[in-house]
């Protein structure tokens, strides 16, 4: 079916129909545009919702419970869902709306050109028909004038009163009119033939071609509308796997909720450690308020000493709902007390003496973990400064070695302060545990020599393994100080370190646990460096000549034992194979480390 043959006379209707089709395509584009806006708005509102319900810093302690953790995980998944709606909007914007705009522009231009051609063809046929009408009218006029001239001639020829000249004049006029009539007739015939040919071409070739192109243009529009609708659905379907993963994440988060575990967390958080109060004793008023033993059913014996006297301060039920009020009142009445120096920045006592035993123990353990983390950072910083100073002393062109003295002194002071705090809180922890602590609780060493960190050690011991453990085979406890001489230029600073030969099951020690320490104190004990166990093996890639104290030469292909990994300064501590067992530093880039 073709518009050119079936709708040859529906030019105006086809022009109107194609315009309506373009209007629909634009309307569909506006629909997709508005949907993108809705998707972006929905995504933005989801993100704001997630932001508004993110846990505040003051509520972080509450988010240790499984429902709160699941809710936090769900917020992350909802935030990812918002991202997928943004992806839908972006893909619709780039793949659909832009293509629709291009298509509308092309269809409008093509339609305009085709309508201009059809208007030109219509104008041509109309002009030809008008010419035909003019020639027909001329022929009709000439024919009437010829008939009139013939009638005049016949009357003159029949009239005997007219002279011969008058009759001849009428005859000549008749001949002229007949000739003009024939010419008009010929012109009319030619115009008619030309008009018929043009009309046939107009309705059988020119206009059908225009209609065919309009039909193709309209079919193209319809075909693209179908494609845009399907592609819009595909854009949304493509994010379904990720959306399903987000929903699966929410379900997994919900499955992680464990009411029994939360019950244990509540007990650990609020358990005071106190024993429940005993029964009230019998106060015998007949004996002047003196305490007297009273045998109650069940065999319990009580001594009467007054109900008020029986309630000792140590028997108060802290950790209950009233504990918060007691704590606040203590802070209120202690504003003007002389013990304000014992308060932390949050207003609580830094020894946590106002807390129940179990809660106090938890706070002290947290404080010890915090101090140890800071101590590790300070020790790492000090060790870096030591290496920098050694580099400056071996090559003065790189910097002044004395420029690090101030920073080293500050770092040593901070380490001393942290060690002091560590000792203090370990004493507090022992005090709490000596007063009675739950069985199986972890204990910190009371001596700083046994806490795993000295003034400069870099061993990384897990906080869950800092237990008061027994040491088998009579070996030294973890944390025994060692003093290894690295270079004479480092003799101004002392950094004791932890020996790696004292490892026990359950410990977590970093590869840098065998860091050297430099001693300026003659009393510092010397530790045999050959006792340090190797961390791995390596092969020398290039020959190296030792140019500074503390480094050792090596030849290409030599097999060495790794004693200390590179700490970021480009040097690795190695040891030769026995029996030589020479030990020192080599460039890390000159060796190939074998994975264990």
Automatic annotation (TrEMBL):
<feature type="compositionally biased region" description="Low complexity">
    <location>
        <begin position="485"/>
        <end position="494"/>
    </location>
</feature>
<comment type="similarity">
    <text>Belongs to the FNBP1 family.</text>
</comment>
<dbReference type="InterPro" id="IPR036028">
    <property type="entry name" value="SH3-like_dom_sf"/>
</dbReference>
<dbReference type="Pfam" id="PF00611">
    <property type="entry name" value="FCH"/>
</dbReference>
<dbReference type="GO" id="GO:0005886">
    <property type="term" value="C:plasma membrane"/>
</dbReference>
<keyword id="KW-0728">SH3 domain</keyword>
<dbReference type="GO" id="GO:0006897">
    <property type="term" value="P:endocytosis"/>
</dbReference>
<keyword id="KW-0254">Endocytosis</keyword>
<dbReference type="InterPro" id="IPR057870">
    <property type="entry name" value="HR1_TOCA"/>
</dbReference>
<feature type="compositionally biased region" description="Low complexity">
    <location>
        <begin position="450"/>
        <end position="465"/>
    </location>
</feature>
<keyword id="KW-0472">Membrane</keyword>
<feature type="coiled-coil region">
    <location>
        <begin position="97"/>
        <end position="156"/>
    </location>
</feature>
<keyword id="KW-0175">Coiled coil</keyword>
<dbReference type="Pfam" id="PF00018">
    <property type="entry name" value="SH3_1"/>
</dbReference>
<dbReference type="InterPro" id="IPR011072">
    <property type="entry name" value="HR1_rho-bd"/>
</dbReference>
<protein>
    <submittedName>
        <fullName>Formin-binding protein 1-like isoform X3</fullName>
    </submittedName>
</protein>
<feature type="domain" description="SH3">
    <location>
        <begin position="533"/>
        <end position="596"/>
    </location>
</feature>
<dbReference type="InterPro" id="IPR027267">
    <property type="entry name" value="AH/BAR_dom_sf"/>
</dbReference>
<keyword id="KW-0963">Cytoplasm</keyword>
<keyword id="KW-1003">Cell membrane</keyword>
<feature type="domain" description="REM-1">
    <location>
        <begin position="353"/>
        <end position="431"/>
    </location>
</feature>
<feature type="domain" description="F-BAR">
    <location>
        <begin position="1"/>
        <end position="262"/>
    </location>
</feature>
<dbReference type="InterPro" id="IPR001452">
    <property type="entry name" value="SH3_domain"/>
</dbReference>
<dbReference type="InterPro" id="IPR001060">
    <property type="entry name" value="FCH_dom"/>
</dbReference>
<dbReference type="GO" id="GO:0007165">
    <property type="term" value="P:signal transduction"/>
</dbReference>
<dbReference type="GO" id="GO:0005737">
    <property type="term" value="C:cytoplasm"/>
</dbReference>
<dbReference type="InterPro" id="IPR031160">
    <property type="entry name" value="F_BAR_dom"/>
</dbReference>
<feature type="region of interest" description="Disordered">
    <location>
        <begin position="435"/>
        <end position="506"/>
    </location>
</feature>
<dbReference type="Pfam" id="PF25610">
    <property type="entry name" value="HR1_TOCA"/>
</dbReference>
